[in-house]
Amino acid sequence: MPVAPAFREMANTAKGKVCVTGASGFIASWLIKRFLKSGYHVLGTVRDPGNQKKVGHLLDLEGARERLELVRADLLEEGSFDDAVMACEGVFHTASPVVTKSDSKEEMLNSAINGTLNVLRSCKKNPSLKRVVLTSSSSTVRIKDESDLPPNVLLDETSWSSIEYCESLQIWYAVAKILAEKAAWEFAKEHMIDLVTVLPTFVIGPNLSPELGPTASDTGKFTVYGRMGYVHIDDVASCHIMAYEAAGAEGRYICNAAVLDLDELVSLLATRFPAYRVPKSLPNIYGEQSYGFDTSKARALGLQEFKGVEEMFDDAVDSLVAHGHLPAAKNATTRCVF
Ligand SMILES: NC(=O)c1ccc[n+]([C@@H]2O[C@H](COP(=O)([O-])OP(=O)(O)OC[C@H]3O[C@@H](n4cnc5c(N)ncnc54)[C@H](OP(=O)(O)O)[C@@H]3O)[C@@H](O)[C@H]2O)c1
């Protein structure tokens, strides 16, 4: 993707102030933890900074008292991010509209695309902005009719999911992410914004918030995903930070540790967590799938080693137990969330 050449010459390592949208979210919270740990000042946007249930875990982070500020902003209010973005050198746009069952497809697409453009319109107004890192998704890459793909294909950043195929399966989340990322690229090109996108697969790991967000609750719905990539939340945060700091970062970055079929996943979970009742198999609703991801671009950026699947699920389960969402293994008599 073309970008303003001047931006490419500098590495963004000065640890200035960065804006993280949707700060209370699963990925954003971990990203903020990492930023604070490495000395950045962070301005996080949330819809309700006074809601302790949503922001309490952020205020408890090491360095938060000195270097974290939370302000109100809403994706659906035009200009809402102006002040937050204006104060920062880097913007990490992770906020994503929460989709409820009553939302129509149109509402979901409208809020995903216009929310992203709303943030980028604020970015355009900031002459000191160095780079925008947008959290997109591997669902913008991998969802195609398997019969259109060679067996064992390694999908890379040049691949885009088929909107028609996603629509035929009514996977509106993917349609929204594809259209939002494409709109972001177009806007960034037109307005010379230095944009980089990170495309995580299914993000697994500790949940900093004691509240279960949509992703953590989603772990009960693996069946609908079929063959899927998995990545540790700490690697996702590293990828965002490297994509911001590296002078030569550009374009899209797939962030993935391993791709598993559903039977591989359940077998791993059953072996790893024998105390919990893990289903022996899950129905395969998509038929044979064999794709993988080429992560050489993220590795070249500096993400040499991804944490393994065992570690990411261990960390996720530990955090679910710590927050009281799962019984400790020795007391496990109820059904596991898997
Ligand atoms: N988790 C994954 O496995 C995964 C994988 C690939 C890509 N992603 C992408 O990563 C990003 C973060 O995902 P996540 O799992 O961390 O999601 P999450 O925990 O649901 O966090 C999303 C955040 O967006 C904020 N938000 C929702 N509607 C908003 C609105 N109208 N205005 C402002 N903020 C709003 C919410 O903040 P408040 O409710 O506090 O305002 C929420 O904390 C998303 O873009 C998602 O598509 C996630």
UniProtKB/TrEMBL annotation:
UniProt keyword Iron present: no
Keyword Oxidoreductase: yes
Gene3D superfamilies (alphabetical): NAD(P)-binding Rossmann-like Domain
Keywords linked to the UniProt accession: Oxidoreductase
GO molecular function: oxidoreductase activity, acting on the CH-OH group of donors, NAD or NADP as acceptor
Domain NAD-dependent epimerase/dehydratase: 18-251
The protein's name: NAD-dependent epimerase/dehydratase domain-containing protein
Origin species: Digitaria exilis
